[in-house]
Amino acid sequence: MDFSLFPFSLTLSNGSLVSPSISVHPLRGSAVDIHPNACWKQNGITVAGRKENGYGTDQLNNPWGLFVDDEQTIYVADPNNHRIMEWKRDVTNGQVVAGGNGQGRTVVAGGNGSGNRLDQLDEPTYVFVDRDHSVYVSDWNNHRVMKWSKDATQGIVMAGGQGRGNGHTQLSYPRGFVVDQLGIVYVADAGNDRIMRWPKGVTQGSVIIGGNGQGKESNQLNWPFGLSFDRHGNLYVVDRYNHRVQKFNIASNA
User: Fold this and answer.
1) What is the mean pLDDT of residues 164-190?
2) More exposed terminus of the chain, fewer Cβ within 10 Å: N or C?
3) What percentage of the chain reaches a pLDDT higher than 70?
């Protein structure tokens, strides 16, 4: 299973959530066997972006989540520009593959809750690319997970998108997520202290872990940021403000 999860630090001011600070810790497993004594060159090479931030196709503005495919194409969440950028190998300019139409505005219409246009993003944080080159985005300030098919001009809501809340149709500041081969989205619903599962094509998800209030007990979470499955189907969760990683053993697989 391929996935890309990048937890970030959060800044809290008087108990209110504000923009996350940047602290990248990749959790995606490598497809290459790396020797335990491997070493890396100490001088890096810039493969996306320039020294200064900006909105140009050769620039980024406080980039966050990252995904690199087998062709070494780079997909990066560019939250302050409200877009996902793609950089092919050995090119100096990227291209916008999702968003980039300006910061979305919250719209209330028909009593269906708040939301942004399907061709917009508002501080995307995590990104995942499937085998069909569809781009999945954790759209943090819109409280939803979006899917942008290859060459699409707008996205599809895969999870949430009904405003911030704790209902089964809602998310609250979603973070890391995994998409399996069936198109099922598993998402860390950070603001609700739970992990949710959203099968493809449904309008509401189900709570599979947490949702028992914020706390330190074994059945509780405190701002989960990332998640991963091992080959047996056991679930691991980055439990951010409990300063731990929790393992939830699979009970059945039927």
Assistant:
1) 92
2) C
3) 74
